[in-house]
Structure formats: structure tokens, C-alpha cells
């Protein structure tokens, strides 16, 4: 490693600490690693350390870093047209919208583009409120929907409350418990029981809140940040049926689960259910240029045929981002990324992680599908006590910090949230790299087994 490169890294760090205000952090308590570059499933720092990215950053680089076809499409578009207001028609914007509509279920034929996931949630909720003339929106306690005001209010992740003494939440958000058999709120012992009781609980919540006041239920198809929670068979169809019964819209949040992550184009494809609105972002272009959006059904679009939709964003349908969506969908088709992610889940991640759960006393449960997995780490398999509590800080958080350090020391970058280690590499990671990362995880788990 040359001294020049090390000096460049030191300058990156100095500028960051002097002027960058970071997300989700106490500003004085962090030490962000300066990153020099990335390619495929790897990124590297200025000191010559290479990391296998088992986090896909924030679970967004579904097609890996610097995919040449996506980079080329952005470069080509930059040479043609970098920006044009959303009020104009534009070639790549129309193509991206058509391609997304084609892979969405039912008659979800229209796309409203945003700059990311939280704005997609904000606009899905506004569309639902304006369409129904109702204000409340129901979401699950275990969820993450973004950190803008409506999105954070809907988020059920306990992080949301950590610093909320000043009341950052907006009105109209009502929470309920979704199904989660391993930590069941319904004292269920089978998936069928959990499904039935969770649906009963949702229906009671709807009745207590008053169906005529509820615009929508929003739900991550597979709950992501809050634990990779797979809905039991029949649950999402049951939610659809309850929404239909009470005239409530069903918003599927596919910001994390969509675009190959679950081994399907959209996670909802696994269950054959058609929501009224779908939000997307992250994997749609791996985040190379910020973009997200809402996929909208015919009946909701009809509401705004003669009536103005009172919302918009300067960069809605940004040409560089839309060109990268077109290139991403084409690349995923050509390279069979969906099939590869599904295969990895069935043949590599599923069997290997379940085998680790047998070997390691700290691994309470393994959940997931495709390239979307979580280990629920515990102090005791019997009591299922979480290895670290929600919002753990300082000494309480030590076990998970030690696990992260043990993985990084083995060249694998982890995604950790509370007591969970998520295995969420790029969906096109090679089998060899997937097995390499899993071997590092297997070794690293020894540092938390001592707490179990
Ligand atoms: N919804 C879900 C399901 C998410 O996982 C996220 C981001 N983790 C968001 C919404 C918010 O997306 P963004 O960070 O792009 O605003």
C-alpha cells in the first residue's frame, strides 16, 4: 500500500469527521471507514483491506457494485440528457415505467417515481388517503418504512422511539402485530395457528379503529430490517381479503424485498397476491442513482384521471436513474439473477445456515429465502432471550459488536440489527463467494457462542 493512498484515506476521514453529519448516529461516537472503491461483491478501503459485501450496503446492491452494463447505461444517458423536468415525456422514463409495470402483478400499470424508498411510502400513503377519503394507515410493529415523517410514523422498528421524546411522529399511524411464530404474540405453536390468530388480531384492530377511518394497510411483503420475517402461508391472502371486506387499500412495501432479493422479481410473487399499491427502490437499480417509486393500480389511477394528484418531486423519473433501471432489469433477465438468487437460497444459504444453527448455541432461528436471510441470535435456545436487547448500547451491545469485528477481521462485511445477523449479499454473488462468506460467519459465531 503506497503512502499516497494512505494519505488520501486520511484526508477522506478528516473531511468526513469535520463536515459530514451521519444517519442514525451520535456524531461523536462514530469512526466511518473510508472506502476507496468497489466491484461486484467486494469493496475496499485505503489501507488495502478488501471486504466481501454480505450487507449489499443497505441491502440495495442487488446486482453488485459497478455492474458494467448499468454503469455504461448511466454514462450513455449522461452524454444524451442528464435531467428533464417530470412534466415532460422522456424515453428512458417511459421505458422504465413500462418494464416495471410489466413485472408487477394484476393491473398495477402506472409508476410514480420518487428519489428513494421513504418518498415512495409517503406517496403511496397520500394516494391511498386521497383515493379513499380516509386518514388512518395500519402497519406492523416489526417493520421499517423509511425515516421521513409519515414513513417513520408507520415504522414499527423500536429504533424509531429511541430519540422520539420530542414527538417526531405524524398522526394517523396505527400499529398491529404481524405474524412471527418464533416470537409469537399470539401464543401460537404452529404456522397455521399463527396465521389464523394474526389475521383475527388484524380484523379486531380494524374493527376497533373503525373501518371507515382506515385508508390502507401497509406491509413489507417479507419484513426486512426488522428481522427477515416470512409471512406464513395464507397470511397475505388473508390480509388482501380483509382489506377487500372493509374497503381498505393494501400497500405492499417491496423497497427491500423487491428486485431479485427474495429470488423473485417481487416478493409478492411467492404468494400470488395482488396489492393496490407497491413501493420499490433499492434493488431496482442497486442504488447507482437514487430512485424509488410507487406502482399504481388502474382503479387508483382512475381517481386522478380528472382530479389533480397534489404531489410531485423535481427529480421524479430522473433520466440517469431511469436509464439505470432499464439496464438493471435487462441485465437481471440476461444473467438470470432472479433464478440465481432463488437457487442460492435453496441450495446454499438455506442448508448452510440451518446447519450452523445446529452447531452454534447462539443461533436461535434461521429465516429467509433467496439472498435474504437472518440469524436470530439468542442467549438460550430454550428461553429464546435475545442475545442483545432492542436499542442496546455500550456494554449491552458488546456481543453483536464483537461478532461484527470477527467477521470484518475475516474480510466479510456484515449487516447487523439488534440481535440479528442478516445475510444479504448481492443477489448475483458467485457460489464460491457465498460459501467463503458463510465459512467466515461460521468461524466468527464462536465469539457469540460464549454468551449462550
Ligand atoms: N421501506 C423498506 C421496506 C425499507 O427497507 C426501506 C429502507 N431500508 C425504506 C422503506 C426506506 O427507503 P429509503 O432509505 O430509500 O428512504
TrEMBL record:
Keywords: Aminotransferase, Pyridoxal phosphate, Transferase
Transferase recorded as keyword: yes
One MF annotation (Gene Ontology) recorded for this entry: transaminase activity
Organism superkingdom: Bacteria
Coiled coil: none
Pfam families per the UniProt record, alphabetical: Aminotran_3
Keyword hit for Transferase: yes
Family, similarity comment: Belongs to the class-III pyridoxal-phosphate-dependent aminotransferase family.
Protein name: Aspartate aminotransferase family protein
Lineage, uppermost ranks: Bacteria, Bacillati, Actinomycetota, Actinomycetes, Catenulisporales
Amino acid at each position: 500500500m503506497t503512502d499516497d493512498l494512505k494519505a488520501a484515506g486520511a484526508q477522506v476521514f478528516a473531511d468526513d469527521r469535520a463536515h459530514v453529519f451521519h444517519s442514525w448516529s451520535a456524531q461523536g461516537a462514530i469512526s466511518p471507514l473510508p472506502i476507496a472503491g468497489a466491484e461486484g461483491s467486494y469493496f475496499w478501503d485505503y489501507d488495502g483491506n478488501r471486504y466481501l459485501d454480505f450487507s449489499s450496503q443497505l441491502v440495495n446492491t442487488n446486482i453488485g457494485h459497478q455492474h458494467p452494463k448499468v454503469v455504461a447505461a448511466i454514462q450513455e444517458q449522461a452524454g444524451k440528457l442528464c435531467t428533464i423536468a417530470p412534466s415532460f415525456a422522456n424515453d428512458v422514463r417511459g421505458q422504465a415505467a413500462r418494464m416495471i409495470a410489466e413485472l408487477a402483478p394484476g393491473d398495477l400499470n402506472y409508476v410514480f417515481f420518487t428519489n428513494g424508498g421513504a418518498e415512495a411510502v409517503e406517496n403511496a400513503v397520500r394516494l391511498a388517503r386521497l383515493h379513499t377519503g380516509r386518514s388512518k394507515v395500519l402497519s406492523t410493529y416489526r417493520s421499517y418504512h423509511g425515516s421521513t415523517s409519515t414513513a417513520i410514523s408507520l415504522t414499527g422498528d423500536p429504533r424509531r422511539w429511541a430519540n422520539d421524546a420530542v414527538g417526531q411522529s405524524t398522526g394517523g399511524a396505527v400499529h398491529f402485530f404481524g405474524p412471527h411464530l418464533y416470537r409469537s404474540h399470539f401464543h401460537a405453536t404452529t404456522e397455521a395457528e399463527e396465521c389464523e390468530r394474526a389475521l383475527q388480531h388484524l380484523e379486531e384492530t380494524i374493527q376497533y379503529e373503525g373501518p371507515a377511518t382506515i385508508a390502507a394497510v401497509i406491509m413489507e411483503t417479507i419484513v426486512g430490517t426488522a428481522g427477515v420475517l416470512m409471512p406464513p402461508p395464507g397470511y397475505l391472502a388473508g390480509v388482501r381479503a380483509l382489506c377487500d371486506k372493509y374497503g381498505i387499500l393494501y400497500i405492499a412495501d417491496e423497497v427491500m424485498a423487491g428486485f431479485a432479493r427474495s429470488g423473485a422479481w417481487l416478493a409478492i410473487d411467492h404468494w400470488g397476491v395482488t396489492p393496490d399499491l407497491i413501493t420499490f427502490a433499492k434493488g431496482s437499480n442497486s442504488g447507482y442513482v437514487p430512485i424509488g417509486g410507487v406502482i399504481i393500480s388502474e382503479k387508483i389511477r382512475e381517481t386522478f384521471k380528472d382530479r389533480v394528484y397534489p404531489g410531485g418531486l423535481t427529480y421524479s423519473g430522473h433520466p440517469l436513474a431511469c436509464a439505470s433501471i432499464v439496464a438493471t432489469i435487462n441485465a437481471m433477465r440476461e444473467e438470470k439473477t432472479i433464478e440465481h438468487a432463488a437457487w442460492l437460497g435453496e441450495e446454499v444459504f438455506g442448508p448452510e445456515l440451518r446447519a450452523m444453527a445446529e452447531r452454534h448455541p447462539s443461533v436461535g432461528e434461521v429465516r429467509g429465502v433467496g439472498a435474504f436471510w437472518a440469524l436470530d441470535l439468542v442467549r438460550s435456545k430454550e428461553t429464546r432471550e435475545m442475545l442483545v436487547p432492542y436499542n442496546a448500547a455500550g456494554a449491552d451491545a458488546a456481543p453483536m459488536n464483537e461478532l461484527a469485528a470477527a467477521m470484518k477481521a475475516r474480510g466479510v462485511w456484515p449487516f447487523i440489527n439488534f440481535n440479528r445477523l442478516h445475510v444479504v449479499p448481492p443477489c448475483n454473488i458467485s457460489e464460491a463467494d457465498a460459501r467463503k462468506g458463510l465459512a467466515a460467519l461460521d468461524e466468527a459465531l464462536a465469539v457469540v457462542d460464549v454468551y449462550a
